[in-house]
Amino acid sequence: MSRFYEIEPTAENYWRAIILFGRNSASYKFALAKTLFDFQSLGKTQITLEELAVPYAAHLCEHLKKHPKQGTSEQSTFLDKLRAFNQGEIEKDEMTSHTLRYGFINVLDAFHNVHGTEIGIRFFIDY
Question: pTM score, two decimals?
Answer without folding.
Answer: 0.84
